[in-house]
Please model this.
Amino acid sequence: MVINVLVIYLAAVNIAAYFLMKIDKKRAKNKEWRIEEILFFSFCFMGGFIGIHLGMVHFRHKTKN
Model:
């Protein structure tokens, strides 16, 4: 029971982090207001580091490539 809740929580946080990275990349391309770094770090500390990393790689966001 507890493990199921933990898995669902981590999945939700990682999915939200991934799409947060997508939104910020779109805003960067359109030269709009950007999402603050502290929000990305907060998602990482909440367990969304996999979603953040996959978003960075997939959208080439905040990387040199």
Remarks:
- The helical segments are 2-29, 37-59.
